[in-house]
Amino acid sequence: MTTSSGSTGRLRLKLCPSLSATPRIVLRRPDGTVAEFLDMVQTQLRSDVSLACFVDGFALPRSELICHVLRDDEVLLVKEAEETGPRLKRQRVAPFGLTGCPSSVPCIDWADGGLLTALSACGAVFVRDDSLPDPDFVSWQGLWQQALEDHRSFRRRPAVLNRQLRFSKGEDLLRTRVGEAKAHTPDIRYNFGVGVDVMSRDWDELSWIRDGFDSVLQMLMAMMKSELASATDAEEPENTLGSKVLLDCESWAGSRLRHSVYPPNGSCTEHTDYGVVTLQQSTAPGLEAYVAGSWQSLVPPPGHAVLFAGDMLEILTNGKVPALVHRVTPGGSRQSHIIFLQPDRNTIVQPLRPFLRHDGTDHMPVKYGEWHKRKTSLAFQKP
């Protein structure tokens, strides 16, 4: 096997037995098609034998770009074409919304599993939302209009008086990634916010907000419990998210709901989210992701919502799942219903043991509350 490094990642190449006696070859990870890659292999082997590429038993179509069909952690097997037998084509998931993205956005179902693998492609997936509670965008729109047009009545609502439901205009995000300065565009949006700490209180006529939040949160917790449990062992250090993953809601005490209303030309500047995963349902396009060096529109197919990775999942998986850099671009009016799955502030988040490399490149542990405070200070301080 040959392993080489290139500007676009690592390539792991394995030659079939009939070719394994050939001299060791070293190749850059190619940017071109499978056919062009095989031409490179043949040149180095100094052979006229017709070759084919396989990954996980599937033949790669010669016309496909390598970056579309091969991930960094996969082994590329090269065989003589006559040895391949029936050619099974490795299917790509259609890139709903991420046109031109080297890694398509997978569509998954809540009960199917495989979330971490799906997220490793580009940090985002589309999940079927037919099992999710209706965000009730109509009621949220009415609540927003009351907050603007009859603020006194809005303030008299018990949930608002008791700070169970918070309302604000905009979040002026300046910088939200450590060590990076970026062009600043002031946000224009209105935000309703709810935290887990007020879920047990009486919400009176706004109980639909609490109930919807609780239903989605339970689904997200169950999904992450199932996903992380398979990558967690009994030796995870105490008070880490890995050791708490099988516990109840207290492990996710930092979780929150945010419902944002974007007026025409409303926006949200680029950032990654603080927590583990974010689930978003929206009334209109506007969400963009920074993938493979460019901004791509992230539009789910009908019947799906967007779920993407935050900083904590990137740390838990030691970088295998990237935190999604995203933004909301100006356009028409829209609403976004967003659930953030986040640990409590005293939980230590560090790479789970199966993801450790022990080569000096592992992510460092962080206390979630300190991480959140650090990123908040970056976001709201002046440049």
From TrEMBL:
InterPro entries hit by this protein? IPNS-like_FE2OG_OXY, IPNS-like_sf, Iron_ascorbate_oxido_reductase
Instruction: Tell me the ranges covered by the Isopenicillin N synthase-like Fe(2+) 2OG dioxygenase domain, including all copies.
Output: 262-343
Q: What is this protein called?
A: Isopenicillin N synthase-like Fe(2+) 2OG dioxygenase domain-containing protein
